Description:
By secondary structure, the chain is α+β, with helices and mostly antiparallel strands. Helices cover 43% and strands 21% of the residues.
Amino acid sequence: MLPIIFMIRRIRGSRALFAIVMGTFVLFVTLFVAAPFDLAEGMATAMKPEEGGKQTVAFVYDGDTVRTSGGLIVRYIGIDTPERGEPLYEAARERNAELVKGKEIELRVCRGEPKDKYGRTLGWVYVDGFFVNGLLLEEGFAKTLLIPPCGTEKREELLGLEDKAKQAGVGIWK
């Protein structure tokens, strides 16, 4: 770019002509080189599903993680279900699948921490008006996992649902 600037300066004319040429060059680069990338990134950001809204669940990984038809991997906030190889893993995964697989969910994404360290979108999931994160707790398929900032937003509600499961002696609380 510097050779172009020096060549333009050598062109006969005033500093005003140089300023006009350079201004045009900068405008051209901004509009036709840099802007399309920024605009595409801005549009992708504006249209990202992790902003929440309606999603359809295509695949259930386990009791607290799903993938939407748009490819978004969602980790439920505030709960932790058994991992592969642990007791009730399969039961928790199957219950989650019964609740959400192939269904339209309403995803409410944590604004304070929208992604976890693995790149999964962190959210509260609702289906047909039911709070899925809470339902899995209440039925004993999950324990509370209250990681700030978002995991603590529904702290009292989640702890109350976990207590119900403990008192009923269901799922992991048998």
